Recover the amino acids of this structure.
């Protein structure tokens, strides 16, 4: 047999029954028969018999889309298609043996089945692995995964997966989770999704996107020792690898194929050795429509290679000198298609019963069993009633939906319902009386009796004024990624993190999207809000941007809530993502402040402030059992993942399991489990660098008590009933304690010094009966501790905040309440950390600096003049402000049959331009800020008629204006607020609802009894005699008009004429419809007459 490959002519042509060529989507050689199994674009699997390509049995996989994967065995063929119609197993004659169709999930891929394995694994798009019986296809169990698995390889000792985020992970085949007794079980192979995946001997081969097109090879021995799971030098492949296969008869060789038919055979252990190159000869007719490779396969003996193309042909390359079977030997005979069992012949006579004819089996009663006494002898169907003409004349249409109000004359008792007693408190501000104080704004779920009311999921019921018509505390939920609200709240009440975040907002942060900056802004807002609701919209927007940029799809929120979302796992994944981001964002190698009094450890010369607060820096002591050699490595972690003791009883009943696990209090209390998670001993196998022997190693973390962090961040890692049994209340005692004592360990010996920690906050998942869940935060509020309240514990259920007892905070009585994140603080945390080096005030010179990032700014369009040093604001300085917005998300509305509508999610606006003018002094009315705001999000509507913003104005490459990042604009406005400036504007209550120092002209020129507020355009025309907003809106013009209206109010009030003039405005404004007349010659005469009679002298 030759060692090189040569093509067989002509190519095979598996023409389907339709007569039209179809793209080859999957290929697989049979291991025991002379068959090449072929998957077509129509979802059909066909057996190609031998090198001549005779057609054998054919069967459909399901659906009308292409076959995605085929795996043949000794007596079966397993396959799945792209139509998400499940996974199935067939015998080689084409008869289906079983099918697995999960609902509503879809199958991404499935694994092979080794001869000794009693299960196979399928990957689902719900971030789960399903373990199946290979005999019946019945699901055995499901295991959650951290990302979408696109490749699976199963052996007798391990399960290896490749995922959409570029990671290779090793799973324990018995559980599907990460392998125990290992420091790591994954490695980042590619920057994006893994495209090709193959295993052979001691190697894993992958293809995917990196800095260049290449193949990464990773030693498989690292699957047993994660620390040695390092990539070998990549193998370059300039044509771009599309498919990858291992050669079965060569220990370390693989075949790499490009879509253009270039075949590269290379030895992975010695890439510099001679290589084999082949080029498929595509037919010349395809020059106008180039052919490309769509599927490939290698025979079990490596004698044949098969390649399918988009034109429906299969190209065969062979090493054989003659014609030998695909499998290399005379194996099982070629199967024939299964024929249906013939119907039995029936000899009909007068006495032959009709039940000889087979009928489908129904497990429910048919309609034919309807009782005859309930059936009308003369059925009649009344025509639908005619729509009254009063309704037809008032009908309105909205996107093919017609609606109208029911006229009063048609309202009768049939339209009346018994209403419950009305509450005396209005739900919205607009419906409250002056004597009402506490509004009821939250809407609790009322279909779950197990979950207490304060824990139930709350939703905003929007009034016609939107979300600004509420008056409650907490964070709102109408924005995407608002599941992070609970973490935002606990970060706010962890004082060291709050101080660091607020200080970070005052420095010149180079990151446009910075979570630490956004956390600092939210903390400042929450401090100023004093119980008013706040929006974390910029924080949530930044989370979405960074998660998408990092390909962390498990953190994305698409606004679709379902039972498949495990918010406990999701928030713990986000928790780790947040701390990692904050650590890098807070770190400045030349300016990191020393927060710890005992200074920096010598092995860490410049530690991030987040690491100084949360970091657990210690030594990993590793000892070889053979030579007793010891080596030390330094390692820093920020979050402790709890590891629970193994299950000690076989019972799966939770109460009995709880009793068993609680029987040994010394081993199962929270402090013991936390210490074992911190200092657990890990055993592994590897080659010792000292004795050169393959030996057992034991590693243990060594940390002294004073090296324990000031703040301890913990992921609870409660993913099953066995773990939750530790947390469940037992004999009127709680697992979690308000205060714990920890000791460090040095060389396996407890440190004599003791560190006392106090529980500060925790995030909890609340699960309803319908399996939908949400998150709440339970916080021991520091300010409440200082006030000496009965209980400093508060429950933050998004925007509903409730004071609860300590017992309620620590108790876990049922599985509806599951812990996710826990935070502890040292008792003396304020004395341990020194924040005197952090800047807490913004540099006022930012108001005198040009912050534009526009590449093509038109200097003639610059209308603002920066503040001089002697003009920097002081407490009480007047400034006039106006802002313009663009639409980032359309309103989601539900229209009802009676014509009314319910707002499901309000429209989301983003700041697009802000103008701030001097409010007093010799340069009164001159703007010193006029910034257009750069945004990286997609803008749905520029609202040009109302904002004056047009396409390109917010793009750095196209904008002609002063374009500034959103974060810098917030810093400028924050500086004005901190300096005590008084803001003047029209309609500022929406944009500055948590700022007290606001003078709103819409409130100045308002009579509460008239219940009508006057527009800036009408007031400017009537009071100032000016027509504004004649074209697009201009924020400088609007701010200047508001300032002049305030000055006119001051003059009229000083003369004692304001109340009289305000009555005249309402009285005369009614005849104009409270709108200025069109700008004509007659209107100019009206303006001159109004100006002479209404303007103050």
């Amino acid at each position: 047999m030759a060692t090189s490959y040569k093509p067989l002519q002509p190519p095979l042509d598996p023409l389907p029954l339709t007569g039209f060529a179809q793209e080859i989507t999957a290929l697989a050689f049979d291991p025991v028969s002379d068959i090449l199994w072929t998957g077509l674009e129509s979802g059909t699997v066909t057996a190609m018999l031998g090198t001549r390509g005779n057609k054998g049995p054919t069967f459909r996989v399901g659906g009308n889309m292409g076959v995605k994967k085929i795996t043949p065995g000794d007596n079966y063929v397993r396959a799945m298609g792209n139509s998400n119609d499940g996974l199935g197993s067939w015998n080689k004659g084409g008869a289906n043996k079983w099918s697995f169709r999960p609902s509503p999930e879809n199958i991404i891929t499935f694994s092979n089945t080794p001869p000794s394995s009693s299960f196979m694994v399928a990957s689902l798009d719900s971030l789960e692995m399903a373990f199946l019986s290979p005999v019946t296809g019945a699901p055995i169990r499901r295991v959650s995964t951290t990302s979408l698995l696109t490749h699976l390889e199963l052996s007798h000792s391990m399960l290896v997966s490749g995922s959409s985020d570029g990671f290779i992970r090793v799973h324990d085949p018995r559980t599907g989770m990460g392998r125990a007794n290992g420091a790591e079980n994954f490695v980042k192979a590619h920057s994006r999704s893994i495209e090709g995946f193959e295993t052979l001997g001691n190697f894993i081969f992958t293809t995917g996107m990196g800095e260049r097109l290449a193949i990464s090879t990773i030693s498989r021995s690292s699957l047993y020792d994660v620390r040695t799971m390092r990539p070998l030098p990549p193998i370059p492949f300039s044509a771009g690898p599309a498919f990858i296969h291992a050669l079965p008869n060569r220990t370390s060789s693989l075949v790499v194929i490009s879509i253009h038919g270039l075949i590269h055979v290379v030895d992975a252990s010695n890439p510099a050795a001679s290589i084999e190159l082949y080029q498929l000869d595509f037919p010349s007719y395809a020059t106008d429509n180039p052919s490309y490779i769509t599927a490939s396969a290698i025979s079990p003996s490596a004698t044949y290679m098969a390649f399918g193309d988009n034109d429906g042909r299969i190209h065969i390359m062979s090493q054989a000198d003659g014609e030998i079977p695909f499998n290399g030997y005379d194996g099982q005979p070629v199967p024939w298609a299964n024929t249906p069992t013939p119907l039995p012949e029936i000899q009909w006579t007068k006495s032959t019963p009709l039940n000889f004819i087979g009928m489908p089996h129904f497990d429910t009663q048919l309609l034919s069993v309807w009782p005859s006494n309930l059936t009308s002898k003369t059925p009649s169907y009344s025509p639908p009633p005619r729509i009254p003409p009063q309704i037809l004349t008032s009908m309105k249409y909205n996107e093919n939906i017609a609606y109208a109000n029911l006229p009063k004359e048609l309202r009768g008792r049939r339209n009346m319902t018994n209403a419950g007693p009305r509450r005396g408190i209005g739900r919205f501000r607009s419906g409250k009386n002056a004597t009402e104080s506490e509004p009821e704004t939250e809407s609790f779920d009322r279909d779950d009796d197990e979950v207490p009311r304060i824990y139930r999921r709350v939703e905003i019921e929007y009034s016609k004024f939107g979300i600004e018509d509420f008056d409650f505390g907490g964070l709102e939920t109408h924005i995407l990624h608002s599941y992070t609200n609970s973490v935002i709240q606990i970060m706010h009440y962890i004082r060291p993190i709050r101080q660091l975040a607020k200080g970070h907002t005052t420095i010149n942060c180079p990151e446009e999207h910075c979570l630490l900056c956004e956390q600092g802004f939210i903390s400042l807002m929450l401090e100023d809000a004093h119980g008013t609701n706040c929006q974390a919209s910029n924080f949530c927007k930044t989370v979405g941007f960074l998660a998408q940029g990092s390909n962390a799809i498990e953190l994305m929120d698409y606004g679709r809530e379902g039972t498949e979302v495990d918010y406990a796992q999701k928030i713990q994944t986000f928790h780790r993502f947040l701390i990692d981001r904050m650590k890098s964002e807070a770190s400045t190698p030349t300016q990191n402040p020393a927060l710890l009094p005992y200074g920096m450890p010598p092995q860490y010369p410049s530690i991030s402030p987040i690491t100084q607060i949360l970091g657990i820096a210690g030594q990993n002591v590793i000892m070889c059992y053979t030579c007793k050699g010891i080596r030390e490595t330094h390692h820093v972690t920020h979050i402790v993942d709890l590891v629970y003791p193994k299950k000690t009883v076989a019972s799966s009943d939770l109460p009995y399991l709880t009793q068993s696990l609680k029987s040994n209090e010394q081993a199962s209390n929270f402090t013991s489990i936390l210490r074992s998670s911190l200092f657990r001993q890990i055993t592994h196998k590897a080659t010792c660098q000292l004795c050169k022997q393959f030996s057992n190693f034991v590693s243990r973390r060594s940390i002294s008590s004073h090296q324990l962090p000031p703040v301890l961040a913990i992921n609870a890692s409660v993913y099953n009933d066995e773990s939750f049994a530790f947390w469940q209340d037992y004999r009127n005692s709680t697992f979690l304690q308000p205060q714990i004592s920890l000791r460090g360990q040095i060389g396996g010996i407890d440190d004599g010094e003791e560190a006392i920690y106090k529980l500060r906050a925790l995030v909890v998942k609340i699960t309803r009966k319908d399996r939908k869940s949400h998150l709440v935060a339970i916080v021991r509020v520091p300010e409440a501790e200082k006030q000496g309240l009965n209980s400093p514990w508060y429950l933050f259920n998004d925007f509903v905040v409730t004071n609860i007892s300590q017992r309620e905070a620590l108790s876990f009585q049922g599985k509806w309440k599951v812990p996710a994140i826990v935070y502890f603080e040292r008792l003396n945390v304020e004395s341990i950390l020194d924040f005197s080096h952090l800047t807490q005030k913004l540099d006022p010179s930012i108001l005198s600096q040009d912050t534009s990032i526009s590449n093509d700014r038109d200097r003639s369009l610059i209308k603002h003049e920066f503040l001089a040093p002697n003009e920097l604001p002081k407490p009480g300085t007047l400034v006039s402000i106006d802002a313009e917005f663009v639409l980032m998300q359309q309103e989601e509305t539900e229209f009802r049959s009676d014509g009314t509508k319910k707002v499901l999610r309000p429209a989301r606006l983003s700041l697009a331009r802000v103008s701030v003018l001097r409010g007093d002094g010799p340069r009164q009315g001159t703007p010193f800020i006029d910034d257009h705001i750069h945004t990286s999000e997609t803008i749905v509507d520029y609202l040009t008629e109302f904002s004056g913003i047009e396409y390109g104005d917010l793009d750095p490459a196209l904008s002609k204006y002063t374009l500034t990042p959103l974060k810098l604009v917030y810093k400028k406005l924050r500086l004005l607020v901190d300096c005590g400036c008084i803001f003047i504007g029209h309609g500022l209550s929406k944009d500055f609802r948590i700022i007290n120092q606001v003078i709103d002209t819409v409130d100045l020129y308002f009579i509460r009894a008239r219940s009508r507020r006057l527009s800036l355009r009408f007031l400017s025309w009537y009071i100032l005699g000016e027509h504004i907003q004649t074209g697009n809106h201009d924020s400088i013009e609007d701010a200047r008009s508001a300032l002049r209206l305030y000055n006119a109010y001051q003059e009229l009030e000083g003369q004692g004429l304001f109340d009289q003039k305000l009555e005249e405005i309402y009285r005369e404004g009614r005849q104009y419809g409270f709108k200025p007349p069109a700008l004509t010659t007659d209107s100019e005469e009206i303006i001159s007459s109004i100006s002479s009679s209404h303007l103050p002298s």
Residues 617 and 636 are 4 Å apart (CA to CA).
